[in-house]
Each structure stands twice: as structure tokens, then as C-alpha cells.
Design goal:
The complex is a heterodimer of chains A (742) and B (399).
Chain A (H helix, E strand, L loop, with lengths): L1 H12 L8 H13 L1 H15 L4 H15 L3 H9 L1 H8 L12 H22 L4 H13 L12 H50 L3 H19 L5 H21 L12 E4 L8 H13 L11 H10 L10 E4 L5 E2 L5 H31 L5 H23 L1 E2 L13 H10 L40 H5 L3 H9 L4 H11 L6 H15 L1 H13 L7 H4 L10 E3 L16 E3 L1 H6 L35 E2 L3 E2 L12 H17 L6 H11 L11 H7 L10 H5 L2 H9 L2 H21 L4 H5 L1
Parallel strand pairs in A: 3-4
Antiparallel strand pairs in A: 1-2, 5-6, 7-8
Chain B lengths: L1 H9 L4 H14 L1 E3 L3 E3 L7 E6 L6 E6 L4 E5 L9 E9 L11 E6 L6 E6 L3 E6 L4 E7 L4 E6 L8 E6 L4 E5 L4 E6 L6 E6 L6 E6 L4 E5 L8 E2 L23 E6 L5 E6 L3 E6 L4 E2 L18 E2 L7 E6 L2 E6 L5 E6 L5 E7 L4 E6 L4 E6 L14 H4 L17
Parallel strand pairs in B: 2-6
Antiparallel strand pairs in B: 1-29, 3-4, 4-5, 5-6, 7-8, 8-9, 9-10, 11-12, 12-13, 13-14, 15-16, 16-17, 17-18, 19-20, 20-21, 21-22, 23-24, 24-25, 25-26, 27-28, 28-29
The chains are: A mainly alpha (742), B mainly beta (399).
């Protein structure tokens, strides 16, 4: 009976199932019922099972314990007499002795155990002092919350706390570092941002300036609605327009005039065709000229004349202005510098500041810091974001960027310059005369008088010029106007022709001289290889008379003189050295394109891409799709090999057959042995096949590597090798004190 | 027992014999009893316990959070089950509470009107029990590990204090000042104990592994230093010469007659010394697990035939016979390290305090209520508590 009991306990606890098998349990209970001795025996067996370092085993044993605890007083006294150990093994109250893996089962075990302790305490707590003590201990000292589903003990919590603390420390350090970084970098960021902002200002009007325009439709609507006071809204409108446009005009440097003006789609209200142009022009005129249009108090008369002057029927128009948000900036030579700096700044923002700010925020949020630092970082991030968004919105269309190679100021180089680049005179600053066919290149609209009024006259150089002369002259009087600059330049131009144009002129003439030789040179250059500069090139075509000569001075000793010495020795090698060049020829790497493609036992083809020889299948030979060699002789050789292999193993030992025989007879005939390593491992019988294999879980690549690397033999070998190296050093540098010492 | 009583009545036996036999029996049957409980007041580990020697009724306990609690042990309710009530406590809200862990509490040996307590906050306080105010406070330079008042002194009123400094201080209650300093130890003094036989003899144990016996009337030096090898130079390496233990000595206890001294050290050993000659009696107690870094309080029974010693042993209490070193039993009940135990001589009860905040009362098991002549049938009825019954289901298939 004892034996049966042991068997039962073993079977029950090694099943690995979350539930006990009722049949066996019943049998066990029956045995235990028979006598107290059996009960104590069972208790002993179960306790040894509980001590196993395997959570599944413990869990099953615990379930059996639970069953018996509810039934036998004797079992209860036995268990409670050693309740501390029981709690240690099931609840894990000792934090130096946590529950064994697998983790999920351990969790389950703890939860079940705590629940059981509570139930037991309710039922038997009064009778068994130790039980209630244990319950109170769990409740008060280990702070087990019996309502808590997770049922974490203090030990576990402490472990977690320690982990948390460690993490916190790391974070603290990181935050400190980030803070420092932030301090250092924020200034830089601010500088870059202001730089970018300024560049934007230069490139295009601030979008907030457009806001004034956006108000307009509303105002005009008001106009239509409020007929009683027709003048004031219009006047205000009139006031607004010039001011807004004027401010745009005045503030923008000339480069901003290249922006396509905010396209204003005019939608007429109803079917009244409103010609906006004249008004627009008028307004334009107002900006540049001194037409007094901005008077705040326009009386009725003026208003009437205004309406009449413009051929308007009435003033009941609604002007809907749509401001397209896609602003395009075309790069041209005027704004290259600005765009360059914008681009640089943007690149800096995107590549350097953005990621670092991002990482700060991440770090700060992870560290749970919620104060000025985080706010500051977020602010920075927002600023960066807006700047980057703006940059994207501007949508600069770049010229194809050419890398200008700095050349030495040789004449040859000049020549090259001319060859490589098409004749384009360098342009810097303002160019007064742009030929029509080139206008497009400059990002200017063709100079067509018909379109001129459509294009907003306030922008762009061309329309400016197309203006009637009277207005132009007026413009020129205004020093802030682009026209003034233009005039200034025009005045200066005849006196000092720009150096660039003159240069281009000369080069052009040089070019014209020998187009033939130039072409030849070009062809030659295409053929010639590119070589790094060397001594041979340095002395190219020169004869070096003194090269390779070694001068030996005669001894000036008073009486001691060496035997006859040739004063000059010519060393051929050195002379040669000045004229030779070593070119290493390493060949070119060619990736292997073929595969081994030998058939493998699992039916696939070998995927290895070795150049000549596959380590598994020998020399690589051409094979067809099914892995059979293409050449007949190869095929024959392979056949032969196979045959030989089979011959080495007698036919009756065919592994398939052997396995069958073994299965039938139950004898080990050694089929697994002859069948390689893979089978051998499987042959090893597991003790408890139903339980989770803990060793399997521990069998990670790391542990395997560890086994290899920290293998005693390997360590010894490495030690020996290192000692040998050391030894050699000692022999070599024995006379040096630091080697002599150790 | 009946036989003993008869012999006692007939005058055949020594009058003390019955008493001794019964006491021994009771001590041997000490167990955790469900009928006796001690109120849970302490929120942290219990470092020290003391029962007043006059009536044996009141017990003091000192916790590691500085709290001192006074319990009434006497069961006046005439019911078997009794929970020891706390009379009062010096809680955290008390203005004069110890700031740090209380290491030792002791009653004034002759009266319950005074008790003393010493703590890691470097003070020794003399309390008036009735008003619960400190009557006097002694300040020291180091943390106080232990103090003791002589139970038999009539001519002096000295408290020996072992602190972090290697000097043993003697505080005079009469003058309210530290009167003496005993120099000789090299490291902190973890345990002090007055002899219950000679009022001027003091034993001190220190972290340097030495146990010294002093006569406090002699200022020049100690009486003797206990040597674990009894002076046999061959066995003692130069380092361990004149040491009582190879580790720190953190527990001292005289037997009740004062003839022997028990010491316990962190080398997991307990040694019994002849207190008059300073000789190691070489009683082998085996390994006595002791990981405490502070003083350890253990107790010796009183009036039994072989005397017993109760020693904290991890989370259990080991019971040894003093003179033969035989391990009688392990009292299992605490869930954490036991710090102290104290023996109540009148009813042969043992109280133990542990780090798990519990004070457990170990009560002698009542005599078996089953004389031989009671029939088997009446047995089940004796099981009053249904929890003690088995609950096997009746049908065979159910099991």
C-alpha cells in the first residue's frame, strides 16, 4: 500500500495538468482514509514534492494537499506544525527563495495558496493557532492583500521596487545629462530658429500679415449689408488695401518680389462682372504714388467720383479673396544665399535638434518628470515643428545645385572651367537686362505687356518695368522702392561694367580661337585615367640630375681617415623611384551568383553560395532544377558515391526497417546510433514528459554560447595562448623594466 | 504524579521534589496554545521582553520602532482562553517615546513602580510606571545595546550599560549620573548581566569575542576574562587567546543560582562557564544558529530538575538542557527571526518576541484528560472543536 501511495503521489504531481486526475485522487484519498499512518506518509511524500524546484510539480502537490487538508485532522496538524515551510514553498514568503519557474504556474500557485490559506483560516483558524498566526503574518508582515487578485507578496514587491529604484537612478542620471544638454543646446536652437525665421521673413511675407487681407471679405460683406453708411466701409477697405499692400511692398526686399503673389481669385457676387483689375491697379498706384487714397474721411462726393472714375455701377460688391496657401518660392540668384542658409538651418533642425529634443521629451516623460524642464522641451519641440512646417509650406523650388569645385588658379584650370560649363556669365546682384528667352530661367514671367496688369504690379521686377514711365519716375523717387535701386544701378552701369561680364567676354573670345583643339582635348580627357598625384607626376618630364646620388663627405678627422671613399654614389633605385608608380591591381569583387543546389535529404536544394566548393556537398557543379547534375560524368560520380555509401551499411540494417523491427520487438538494435546525432538526443527518455522542461527554457543561445566560451578547456587554451604571447614579449623586451618586472 | 503526591504526603520525598518534577514536566510540555494569546500592539519587530520578578504578572516589551508596551499576563477571567491585555503603551505619539529601536527593557527588581529602557537613540530612560513619565534620562555617546540592573543588589543601585563604545558604563540611580567606567573591551559591548549571586559581580560580552567578569568595586580592571580553551596555549592561536567565542558575543545569561554563566556568540556556539572559576565547562550544545547583529536575549528555566535553556534559533526557539547540552525540542511558531524570549517562573510559561511583530505565549499543555479507564466510545465527544474532526466522506466511492 505504501508503494502504491508513493506511486500515486508521483503520478499526480508529475502530470503537469492544471487539474488533478479524479480517479487517482480518489484512490489516494481512499488509501489515506484507511489509517493515520498513511496520512503521515502522504504528508511526507507531498512535502518532498513541494520542495522540488518546479512550479508545476509544486502546484499539483499543493492541490493534493488542499484535498487532504480539508479531510484529515491528522494531516492538518502535520502540515500546520511546519506551516512556515509550507508558506515558503507555496507563497514564496522568503524573498531570497522565490518560487521556481515556470513563472505563470508559480503565479497561479501563489494565488491558489493565498486563497487556500484564507479559506483555511476562516474554517480552522480558531482551532489551529499556527494557522492563524501564519494568516496574520501574511496579512500584516508580508502585506498580502487577500483581496488582491495578483496576490503579490512583499518579497515580490520589494524585488520590483529594487528594480524600479535602479531604473529610477538610471533615469535620474540621464535626465541630468539631458538637462545639461538642453541648457547648452537651447541657445543654439533659439539662434537657429531666429535665423530661420528671419530668412522666412526675407523670403516671403509673414503669413500673419495676410491676416489683414482675410478680414476683407467680411468687411465687404458688411458693406453690402450696411447700405446706410456706404462710405465708411469702403474707405476702410481702401485704407486697408494700401496699407497692407504697401507694407508688403515696403518691407519686402526685392527678392521677395519674385514670389508669385498671393493669387487672388475674385469671385463676383451674382452676375455682376466685376473687373477687379482697375481697382487693383488703382490700389497699386496708391501704394507707390502719392495718390491720396488713404484719407480716412472720404466724403460722399469723393465716393461718387470714385465710383464713377472706376466705371463701377455701385459699390455693392462682395469681394471674395481666396488666398492660396501654397506659396512657392523660386530660387534665383537673388535669394540663393538666404535659401542656402534656410536650408542649412533646416537641415540642422531636422538632423540634430529635432531628434535630440524628441529624445529629451521621451526621457523626461519616461522618468516621470513633469515640471519646467518638460515644458521647456515641449516648447522647443513645438517651435521646431512650426519652423519645419513653415519650411515645408514655403516649398522652395531649388535650382539644380552644382558643386563648385575650387580650382587652383592655373590657366589650365580656367580652360577646364570653360569646357565643363556652358557659357554662363556669373550673375550676382541685379541684372538690368534679361533677354526674353532667358527670363524663364530666372524664374521671371515672360515680359508680355498684355499680362502685366494681371500679375500684381507690386511684385516682380518685370511688371515694374512695364509700368508707364511717369509712374516709374515716381517710383524711382521713392528710395524704398525697387525701382529706385534699379535706376541707381542703371546709372552706375555704364561707368563700371561688371567684372563678370567682362570676364565672360574675354573667355568667350578665347574659346572661339580653337574649337578644334578643344574637341580633341576633350576626347583625350575622356580616355585618360584619373590618377592620384604622386612624385612621378611631380617630376613629370623633368630630368633630375642629382636624383639618386648619395653624397658622402670625406672625413675631416685630423689623422684618422677611412679608406678611399667614393664621394658620390649613384643609387639606381632612388632614381627609379622618382619615375615609377606602383599600381596595385586587386581585381574586382564579383558576387557569387550560383548556388550549390545539391539535393538535401528533406527534398530541398542546398542554398549555399560558395564560390568553388560547398562544405557539405563538395565541388559545385551545374545542376538542373531537381538538383541532378547536368554533366554526365558528374552524375555518374554521384551515383557511385551513393552506391558506396549504401554498400558500407549492409542492407538489412536499413534504418527504416530497423526502426520498425525495434518498435515491434522493443529491443534496441542500435538504429538510433547509426543514425546521427539528431536522433540520439530524442532517444534520451525524459523523466517526467508531462512537465514543462525547465532545462529547455534555460537552453537559450546565450547559455549555449556560454557553455562553449566558458568551457574549462577553452579557457585553458586561451590562457595558454595568452601566456605564450606574454612570454614572447618577455623574451623580446627582457631588458625593459616593465616587462622584466612581471 | 499521584505517586509523587502520595510520597510527598507520606513524607518520603524531599518537599521540593514534587515541585521540581511537576515543573519539569510542564516545561517539557510547552506548546503554542490556542487559548493563550498576546494582544498585537507592535507594528514592528519585538526586540526585548521582561517579566517583573515580584509577581510575575506584568510583562514589558520593546519594539524596534521605539514603542514599549506593558501586558498583564494574569488570567483573571476564569476562562481557559485568555488574551493578554495591554495595560498601556508608550506609543509613537507619546512625547517621551524612544526615537529608535528599543533594545532592552527591564523592571526595577524590587518593585513594579519603575522600569528602565535603553534604545538605539543613545539614551537610557528610567520610567515611572504609574505616571508613565521618564523619571530620568541618561545620555550616551553611542547606541545602547544592552543594560542590566542587579537583581540582588542591596547596597548599590547601579545599571550596567553596554554601548557602542568599548567602555562599560555604570549609571547610579541614586545620584542620577554615570559613576563608573569599566575599561577593557576592545569593541562594542553587546551584552551585560549582573550575577544573581554576588551583587558586585558583573559579566559583559563584547563584539571582540571576549567575556569579562568584573567586580565593580575594583576600578583597576576586570576579575577575569573567560577563555574558551581554558588557558591551553596549544589549542589557542594567538588571535583567539583569551576569547570566549570566535565571533561576537551577543548574549549572556546566568543560571538562577548564579553558579554558571551561559554565553552565546555569532560563531553559532553556546558555552557554559563556571562563573566562580571562569572555566569553560565544555558542554557541547551543537550549532546554535545566531545571525543577530545586536544583543540576543535568551532565558533559563527555574526550579526544574535538569535546568533548560531557551535560545532563539532562527525563527524557532531551541530548548536545551543546560548541563548536558541535549537538544530537547524546537518550538516552532514564529515566521521570522526570534529576538528574545523570557521565562515566567511561577507558571512555567515562555514568552517570545520576534521580528514578525508577534509575541507568542508558550504554555504548558494541560494534562491529558484521558485517564485509562474512560471507554473508547466517549473519545469522540471529547473533541469539542469540530475543526479537529476528520471530514472523510462516508461513502467508499467518494473517498
Amino acid at each position: 500500500m505504501d508503494q502504491r501511495l508513493a506511486e500515486l503521489v508521483e503520478e499526480l504531481t508529475t502530470s503537469g495538468e492544471p487539474r488533478l486526475e479524479p480517479g487517482r485522487m480518489k484512490e489516494l484519498k481512499k488509501i489515506c482514509k484507511s489509517s493515520e499512518e498513511q496520512v503521515s506518509q502522504a504528508h511526507h511524500l507531498l512535502l518532498t514534492r513541494l520542495r522540488e524546484e518546479h512550479a508545476e510539480m509544486r502546484f499539483s502537490a499543493f492541490q493534493v494537499v488542499q484535498e487532504l487538508f480539508a479531510r484529515s485532522h491528522h494531516f492538518r496538524t502535520l502540515l500546520i506544525a511546519n506551516f512556515q515551510e509550507f508558506l515558503e514553498l507555496t507563497v514564496g514568503i522568503d524573498h531570497e527563495q522565490p518560487l521556481p519557474p515556470p513563472k505563470e504556474v508559480a503565479q497561479k500557485l501563489r494565488r491558489a495558496a493565498i486563497k487556500a490559506v484564507q479559506e483555511w483560516h476562516e474554517k480552522y483558524g480558531e482551532a489551529y493557532k499556527q494557522l492563524s498566526l501564519g494568516y496574520h503574518f501574511l496579512k500584516q508582515n508580508k502585506k498580502v492583500d487577500f483581496q488582491d487578485v495578483h496576490a503579490r507578496t512583499v518579497a515580490e514587491r520589494r524585488r520590483e521596487e529594487e528594480k524600479q529604484k535602479r531604473l529610477e537612478n538610471i533615469y535620474k542620471e540621464k535626465v541630468k545629462r539631458a538637462e545639461k544638454e538642453m541648457e547648452e543646446m537651447s541657445q543654439e536652437i533659439a539662434d537657429t530658429l531666429t535665423e530661420m525665421e528671419n530668412c522666412f521673413q526675407l523670403l516671403m511675407p509673414d503669413p500673419f500679415n495676410f491676416g489683414v487681407n482675410e478680414i476683407d471679405p467680411e468687411l465687404s460683406k458688411q458693406t453690402s449689408a450696411n447700405e446706410a453708411r456706404p462710405a465708411s466701409p469702403l474707405s476702410s477697405q481702401g485704407e486697408l488695401y494700401p496699407s497692407s499692400l504697401g507694407c508688403m511692398d515696403d518691407e519686402q526686399p526685392c527678392c521677395s518680389k519674385d514670389i508669385l503673389p498671393v493669387s487672388q481669385c475674385v469671385a463676383a457676387d451674382g452676375n455682376k462682372e466685376v473687373d477687379e483689375k482697375p481697382e487693383q491697379e488703382e490700389l497699386d498706384g496708391g501704394t507707390g504714388s502719392d495718390i491720396p487714397f488713404s484719407g480716412p474721411a472720404l466724403d460722399d462726393d469723393d465716393y461718387q467720383t470714385f465710383v464713377r472714375n472706376h466705371g463701377l455701377v455701385s459699390h455693392k460688391y462682395t469681394l471674395d479673396l481666396e488666398i492660396s496657401t501654397d506659396i512657392k518660392v523660386q530660387e534665383n540668384e537673388d535669394n540663393t544665399a538666404i535659401i542656402n542658409s534656410v536650408m542649412d538651418a533646416h537641415k540642422l533642425l531636422r538632423n540634430k535638434f529635432w531628434p535630440s529634443v524628441q529624445s529629451w521629451i521621451q526621457l523626461l516623460t519616461r522618468a516621470g518628470i513633469n515640471d519646467d524642464r518638460l515644458r521647456c522641451a515641449i516648447e522647443l519641440k513645438n517651435k521646431l515643428e512650426t519652423a519645419m512646417k513653415k519650411y515645408k509650406e514655403i516649398d522652395i523650388s531649388f535650382k539644380a545645385r552644382k558643386r563648385k569645385v575650387m580650382k587652383a588658379s592655373d590657366e589650365d584650370d580656367d580652360d577646364e572651367d570653360e569646357d565643363e560649363f556652358v557659357e554662363v556669365p556669373e550673375k550676382e546682384g541685379y541684372e538690368p537686362h534679361i533677354p526674353d528667352h532667358l527670363r524663364k530661367e530666372y524664374g521671371l514671367e515672360p515680359q508680355s505687356p498684355s499680362k502685366a496688369p494681371v500679375a500684381k504690379a507690386s511684385m516682380g521686377a518685370a511688371p515694374l518695368r512695364s509700368r508707364p514711365p511717369l509712374k516709374g519716375s515716381e517710383d524711382e523717387l521713392d528710395p524704398t522702392c525697387a525701382a529706385a535701386t534699379l535706376k541707381l544701378l542703371r546709372d552706375k552701369l555704364p561707368k563700371l561694367p561688371s567684372p563678370h561680364t567682362s570676364e565672360s567676354a574675354t573667355s568667350e573670345t578665347a574659346n572661339l580661337e580653337d574649337p578644334d583643339s578643344k574637341r580633341r582635348k576633350l576626347e583625350e580627357r575622356a580616355k585618360a585615367p584619373l590618377m592620384p598625384f604622386g612624385l612621378d607626376l611631380h617630376y613629370w618630364g623633368e630630368d633630375q640630375p642629382s636624383a639618386g646620388k648619395i653624397l658622402k663627405f670625406t672625413s675631416e678627422h685630423r689623422f684618422w681617415a677611412p679608406s678611399e671613399v667614393e664621394e658620390e654614389v649613384e643609387n639606381k633605385e632612388i632614381t627609379e623611384m622618382l619615375k615609377t608608380r606602383y599600381i596595385t591591381f586587386a581585381g574586382k569583387f564579383e558576387p557569387v551568383k550560383h548556388k550549390c543546389r545539391a539535393p538535401m535529404p528533406d527534398g530541398r536544394l542546398c542554398e549555399r553560395q560558395d564560390r568553388i566548393k560547398c562544405p557539405f556537398h563538395g565541388k559545385i557543379i551545374p545542376r538542373d532544377d531537381s538538383g541532378i547534375p547536368v554533366n554526365a560524368e558528374d552524375r555518374a560520380r554521384e551515383e557511385k558515391m551513393k552506391f558506396e555509401k549504401q554498400a558500407a551499411q549492409p542492407e538489412w540494417r536499413d534504418p527504416e526497417f530497423m526502426r520498425e523491427v525495434e518498435a515491434a520487438t522493443g529491443l534496441d538494435l542500435g538504429s538510433s546510433k547509426s543514425n546521427g546525432k539528431g536522433q540520439k538526443k530524442k532517444g534520451k527518455k525524459q523523466k517526467y514528459p508531462n512537465l514543462t522542461d525547465l532545462k529547455q527554457q534555460a537552453n537559450t543561445s546565450r547559455s549555449r554560447l556560454e557553455k562553449k566560451v566558458f568551457n574549462k578547456g577553452a579557457m585553458k587554451r586561451v590562457m595558454k595562448a595568452m601566456n605564450r604571447v606574454d612570454q614572447r614579449k618577455h623574451e623580446k623586451f627582457a631588458n625593459q623594466f616593465n616587462y622584466a618586472l612581471n | 504524579m499521584l505517586g509523587l503526591m502520595a510520597a510527598r504526603q507520606a513524607g518520603l520525598d524531599d518537599p521540593a521534589r514534587l515541585r521540581r518534577a511537576e515543573r519539569t514536566r510542564r516545561v517539557l510540555s510547552l506548546e503554542l496554545n490556542k487559548d493563550r494569546d498576546v494582544e498585537r500592539i507592535h507594528g514592528s519587530g519585538i526586540n526585548t521582553l521582561d517579566i517583573e520578578p515580584v509577581e510575575g504578572r506584568y510583562m514589558l516589551s520593546g519594539g524596534s520602532d521605539g514603542v514599549i508596551v506593558l501586558y498583564d499576563l494574569e488570567n483573571l477571567s476564569r476562562k481557559p482562553s485568555y488574551t493578554c491585555k495591554a495595560f498601556f503603551s508608550v506609543g509613537r505619539s507619546h512625547p517621551d517615546v524612544h526615537k529608535f529601536s528599543v533594545e532592552t527593557v527591564q523592571w526595577y527588581p524590587h518593585d513594579t513602580g519603575i522600569f528602565t529602557s535603553s534604545s538605539f537613540d543613545k539614551t537610557l530612560k528610567i520610567w515611572d510606571t504609574n505616571t508613565l513619565q521618564p523619571a530620568d534620562i541618561f545620555h550616551f555617546e553611542g547606541t545602547v545595546y544592552s543594560h542590566h540592573m542587579s537583581p540582588v543588589a542591596t547596597k548599590h543601585c547601579l545599571i550596567a550599560v553596554g554601548t557602542k563604545s568599548p567602555k562599560v558604563q555604570l549609571c547610579d540611580l541614586k545620584s542620577g549620573s554615570s559613576s563608573h567606567i569599566l575599561q577593557g573591551h576592545r569593541q562594542e559591548v553587546l551584552a551585560v548581566s549582573w550575577s544573581p549571586r554576588h551583587e558586585y559581580v558583573l559579566a559583559t560580552g563584547s563584539a571582540d569575542g571576549r567575556v569579562k567578569l568584573w567586580d565593580v568595586r575594583r576600578a583597576s580592571g576586570c576579575l577575569s576574562t573567560l577563555d574558551q580553551y581554558n588557558g591551553e596555549k596549544s589549542k589557542a592561536s594567538s588571535e583567539t587567546a583569551n576569547t570566549a567565542h570566535n565571533g561576537r558575543v551577543n548574549g549572556l545569561c546566568y543560571t538562577n543560582d548564579g553558579l554558571h554563566l551561559l554565553t552565546i556568540g555569532t560563531d553559532d556556539r553556546m558555552r557554559l562557564w563556571n562563573s566562580s572559576t571562569g572555566e569553560n565547562t565544555l558542554v557541547n550544545y551543537g550549532k546554535v544558529c545566531n545571525e543577530s547583529r545586536k544583543g540576543l536575549k535568551f532565558a533559563i528555566s527555574c526550579g526544574c530538575n535538569p535546568e533548560f535553556v531557551f535560545v532563539p534559533y532562527g525563527s524557532t526557539i531551541a530548548v536545551y538542557t543546560v548541563f548536558t547540552g541535549e537538544l530537547i525540542t524546537m518550538l516552532r511558531g514564529h515566521y521570522s527571526t526570534v529576538n528574545c524570549c523570557v521565562f515566567q517562573p511561577h507558571f512555567q510559561e515562555l514568552y517570545s518576541g520576534s521580528k514578525d511583530c508577534n509575541i507568542l505565549a508558550w504554555i504548558p499543555a494541560p494534562r491529558e484528560p484521558v485517564p485509562d479507564d474512560i471507554s473508547e466510545k466517549s473519545l469522540p465527544q471529547q473533541c469539542v472543536n469540530p475543526a479537529y474532526e476528520d471530514a472523510w466522506s462516508s461513502s467508499d466511492d467518494e473517498g
